[in-house]
C-alpha cells in the first residue's frame, strides 16, 4: 500500500487553454506526416515545449509529463468532436426554432479550429460499406 499511485489534480481552465493553444499553434507539426522537416525528434520537442508551458501555469506542485499531455489532448479532442457533431446535427434539422446553445469554452473552440470539415461531417457522397442491400451494390 505504500507505493500506491496517487491521483493527479484535475486540470484547470488555464492549463486546458494553454494546452489547446500550444497544440493549435503547432498542429501542422503534431499531425503532420513524417518528412525531412517533420521528424519524431521535432514532434517530441514540440510536446516537451507544450508540457513546459502547461506546467508553468499549473498551480499545484505536481507537474504534468508528456504522456499526460498527449492523453489529455486525445480525450478533450474526442469530447469536443462529439459536442460539435451534436451541435451540427441540431443546426441541420428542419423546423426552425432557437439556435443551439454554445456550450464550448474558449479552449474547446481552439480544438474545433484544428478539425477539418471531413473530420466533422464525414466524406460527402460516401456510402456505407457494411450495407449489403442491392441498391448499394448496383
Gist of the model:
The chain has 138 residues and is mainly α.
Can you characterise this structure?
The chain has helices at residues 13-25, 27-31, 40-56, 66-91, 106-112, 117-121, 134-137. With 138 residues, it is mainly α. It has one domain. The protein starts with 12 loop residues before the first helix and ends with a helix. The mean pLDDT is 82. It comes from Mytilus galloprovincialis. InterPro entries: Myb_DNA-bind_5 (IPR028002).
List keywords for this structure.
globular, mainly alpha, 138 residues, 7 helices
Provide the succession of SSEs.
HHHHHHH
Task: Give the CA-CA distance, first to last residue.
Answer: 64 Å
Low-confidence stretches: none
Summed over residues and divided by their number, the pLDDT gives a mean of: 82
Layout of SSEs?
Elements: H1 13-25, H2 27-31, H3 40-56, H4 66-91, H5 106-112, H6 117-121, H7 134-137
Helix pairs in contact: 1-3, 1-5, 4-5
